[in-house]
Amino acid sequence: MSLAESVSQVRSRGFRIPRADGLTQWIVPLLIILVWQIACVTGYVSARVLPAPTDVALAGWKLLLSGELAKNIWVSFWRASVGFLIGGAIGFAFGLANGLSQLSNKLTDTTLQMVRNVPHLALIPLVILWFGIDESAKLFLVALGVFFPIYLNTLHGIKTVDPQLIEMGRIYGMTNSELFRRVIFPGALPSIFVGLRFALGIMWLTLIVAETIAASSGLGYMAMQAREFMLIDVVVLSILIYALLGKLADSTARVLERITLSWHPAFQKH
Amino acid sequence: MNQALRFAPVDAKALDAASDLIRDAGAARQEARDPSRALSLTIRGLRKSFGDNEVLRGIDLHIPAGQSVAIVGKSGCGKSTLLRLIAGLDEPTAGTIEFGDHEGNPSDHVRVMFQEPRLLPWARVLSNVEVGLGRDRNSPDAKIRADNALKEVGLDEKRDQWPAVLSGGQKQRVALARALVSHPRVLAFDEPLGALDALTRISMQRLLERVWHDQGFTAILVTHDVSEAVALADRVLVIEDGRVVHDIDVDLARPRQRGSAELAALEGNILRELLKETGDLAGT
Predict the structure, then answer these.
(1) CA distance A150 to B170
(2) Whole-angstrom distance, CA of residue A261 vs CA of residue A6
(3) For residues A83 and A136, is the Cβ–Cβ distance under 8 A?
(4) At what angle do helices A232-260 and A53-66 cross, to 10 degrees?
(5) Which CATH architecture has domain B2-283?
(6) CATH superfamily of A3-12+62-267
(7) ipTM here
(8) Could you tell me where the DSSP H helices lie in chain B?
(9) Residue B21 near residue B206 (C-beta atoms within 8 A)
(10) What is the pTM assigned to this prediction?
(11) pLDDT truncated to tens, each residue of chain B (284 aa)?
């Protein structure tokens, strides 16, 4: 049983949290912003340490008008998705190959496990030497970061498909491709989604770090520039945008999960 | 006390409803009966070893077409291994299994029903039954045939449900529909009712007896429950240490009355045989 399955089972059986698709989920973030605003207005927190939410919003509005914000978000979003697609596709392909073929697994798994244990952000100096600071450096790092969670969870999902179901499929004369389509892939899907959600987190992390160190556009670059000019409101704004983008990515994964795993008891309406 | 009184009528009703369903379902599929399709089964010198452990030590057996045979024995006696060999899930170490006149690939005419329903959780009930059609599952009438098989087990109103919402007995009925949909010539059951509660077991036993009667396939039932064996089968084989030690004909009229004196006597005899071996072992 994958992590997501057990977590969601605990959730559906034990304590019932209110359904997350209402406004309930936004109560805590809004409260935090409210407390933050009050702390700034009353002078409890100095504006040089943390600007008030209204100031941050104002900074955001100015950047939006100048078109800089949209440009930087778009650049980062583009890098994130292209890097994710490349790394995810390769990870998925290796996960399938090593899950389905003993030979492929023996051939590549050890190598991949060794590479996995190198922190991919440690490669930044090397990557800069290789690619300079142009797009391919960022795409390479994101793809590398995304590769492993997708690879590991696809492999795990395929390896843990109920062998009794596979035997059943064989008894009923399924061909290998049918067996994959009707039994193995749907069985591995919950685990693949766990990998997908891990990968989305790593995708943003890698990209922002890479952009902070070596870039001439993007959100990470915007934050670093702001630091140079002591624009603390823009720095905070960038951090808030990371949070929102991360949430957006996670929600997308959740919606996909809900659609494709509607058979799963954890995703049925209670 | 009060609680017991309150619950008793509900259970009785549920049982009635189940037998009604089964009666209706049987009537709907009366025309499907074609006993001439059933295959006989001839087993010669069958052996199976896993490493040094010889599980089956030479089995010779003939099962006429359309007979229902129960195989009983203690756990580890080799009864499930025998069933897996018949179903073609494992290869014998030595010996042959012939279906009808030809030694052939059993997967074409043997279907198996396991203790676990083994339904695909991500497929609706109807698609799960369609799986049972084998190579015909893409034919245009697949849905109609699957629907008919579901009617036969009295579950056609559940066709669009996910397996996860069904009860244990309902899942097992879907598994039965999946096994029946291709009109198998031999149907092998591996403890099909082992995981069900007592009431569901009884209604499932009636259902099995009825579909066997309607479709006339050769039935091989592996079970550890002797009363189930004598209630359902024409013939009971007792397996002990990888050999057939008793071959008993159950010559009683159908439908058999559960709890009748003859059944109880027969069951007692078989149980005594099974337990006698244990007693000897305990004595030495």
Answers:
(1) 37
(2) 15
(3) no
(4) 80
(5) 3-Layer(aba) Sandwich (3.40)
(6) MetI-like (1.10.3720.10)
(7) 0.76
(8) 2-28, 79-86, 125-131, 142-152, 168-180, 198-215, 226-232, 261-283
(9) no
(10) 0.77
(11) 344 444 444 454 555 555 555 555 444 444 444 556 788 888 999 999 998 888 999 999 999 988 999 999 888 888 889 999 988 888 899 998 888 866 556 556 788 899 899 999 999 999 999 999 887 888 888 889 999 999 989 898 998 999 999 998 899 999 999 999 988 889 999 988 888 888 888 888 889 988 898 888 999 999 988 888 988 899 999 998 889 988 988 888 877 877 788 888 888 888 888 887 555 544 43
What token pair was written down for A196? 């997908």
* End-to-end CA, chain B: 47
Name chain A contacts of B121, Cβ cutoff 8 Å.
263-264
Q: Between chain A and chain B, how many beta carbons pairs sit less than 8 Å apart?
A: 48
Strands B41-50 and B94-99: antiparallel
- CB proximity list for B228: less than 8 A, separation 6 or greater: B70, B193, B201, B205, B221
Which residue of chain A has the CA closest to B162?
A263
Residue in B closest to A269 by C-alpha? B165
What tokens appear for A12 in the block?
């559906």
Contact list in A for residue B120 (CB cut-off 8 A) is 165, 182-183, 186
Distance CA B110, CA B133 (A): 12
Listed by start position, the domains of chain A span 3-12+62-267
Given B116, B122, B132, which is nearest A186 (Cβ)? B122
Residue type, B23: R
N-to-C CA span, chain A: 21
Which residue type is seen at B166? Answer: L
User: Residue B78: left if φ>0, alpha if ψ -120 to 50, beta else—which one?
Assistant: left
**Is A76 within 8 Å of A135 (Cβ atoms)?**
no
Q: Using an 8 Å Cβ cutoff, are A101 and A164 in contact? A: no
The domain limits of chain B are 2-283
Cβ contact B62:B104 at 8 Å: no
Angle between helices A185-213 and A3-13 (to 10 degrees): 100
